[in-house]
Each structure stands twice: as structure tokens, then as C-alpha cells.
Amino acid sequence: MDPKLHLKNESETFVQRVVSDPRWQLEDELMCQVLGFTLHGYLFGLGRIHCFMDVEEIHDVAIELLAGIGMGRKYVEGMIEAAHEEFLRENNGSWQNQLNGVGHSHALKEDLNVLAESIFTNTALIKKTRAAQAKKPFWKFWI
Questions:
Q1: Cα(111)–Cα(13) distance, rounded to whole angstroms?
Q2: Which letter does DSSP use for residue 51 in this model?
Q3: Which residues lie closer than 8 Å to 118 by C-beta, 6 or more apart?
Q4: Is 1 helix (H, G, I), strand (E, B) or coil?
Q5: Distance between CA atoms of 116 and 103, rounded to whole angstroms?
Q6: How confident is the model at residue 47 (pLDDT cuts 50, 70, 90)?
Q7: Which residues, at least 6 apart from 15, have a Cβ–Cβ distance to it below 8 Å?
Q8: How far apart are CA 110 and CA 79, in angstroms?
Q9: Is a pLDDT exceeding 60 seen at residue 129?
């Protein structure tokens, strides 16, 4: 089987599980970012380890998938580029890179239900963290 086709088929299964869930909201920018960064990690793991594909080919698949569900192409191109930069930066503990890692760790797993569920769990966790940080007065940085 053609590696690019295999990668596309596997990743379409994951993306369809996410967007068919009633909790999916295309209008939620954070949720779209969580999906984008997680998908990048998943595709990078599967594309490089299993399919031996070039980075550009992997990114093309990601862009097509995310644009195909309604995200703007230019937005997606920038997000995938940012995801890749986060992925390559050493000692990177950002939430974006952690999402890359979540996706990457599921690259060779058969059951993608846990990965699909992680989109909603991680979106809620990031929102909760941001809300807690917003409650702290900026002048009390030591709290």
C-alpha cells in the first residue's frame, strides 16, 4: 500500500472519531488547536516510524485533513508549522509540545478511542488552567 494513502486512511479514522463526537465544536479555536497539535504528533510518529515519509508529505496530509473538516487552510498551515517547531525544540514543556507527545505516543496503537477522547479532556484541562490563571491578580505574581 502507498505510505501516504495508509497515513491518510489511519489519520482520517482518528479525525472522524473526533469530529463526529457531539462535543466537537469547530468554532472553538482552542479545541481546533488541541486537535491540530495532537494530530501533528500522531502523524509524525506514524508517518516517520511506520511509513518512512518525509516531513513535508506528513504535513500535507495534516493540512488536507484539517482543512477538510472546515478549518481555514492558511490557519492550518501556520498551526502545523508551529506544531513542528514546538516538536523539534529541545527541553520543551509547552502545552503545545505536550499535545504533540500525546499524539506521537499513540502512533502505533490500534485503538484510537483514547486519543480521540484526549482532544476533549485536554481542551477542558487547558481551559480550566487558563481560567485559574486569569483569577490571579497580575500584581501578586508570587501566588
A1: 10
A2: S
A3: 38, 102
A4: coil
A5: 10
A6: confident
A7: 35, 39, 65, 66, 69
A8: 26
A9: yes
The rounded distance, in Å, linking the Cα atoms of 122 and 101 is 13
In contact, 49 and 108? CB cutoff 8 Å? yes
Going by C-alpha positions, the residue among 2, 126, 4, 3 that lies closest to residue 62 is 4
Q: What is the mean pLDDT of residues 24-33?
A: 97
Sign of CA dihedral 77, 99, 118, 45: positive
Q: Give CA–CA dist 70/91, Å, rounded.
A: 33
Can you read off the three cell numbers belonging to residue 94? 509547552
Instruction: Say how far apart CA 48 and CA 109 lie, in whole Å.
Output: 15
DSSP class per residue in 81-123: HHHHHHHHSTT---HHHHHHHHHHHTTT-S--HHHHHHHHHHH
Max Cα distance, the chain (Å):
59
Of 11, 101, 26, which is closest to residue 70 (Cα–Cα)? 26
Q: Give the closest residue to 106 by CA, choosing from 11, 20, 1.
A: 11
Grid coordinates representing 81 are 508549522
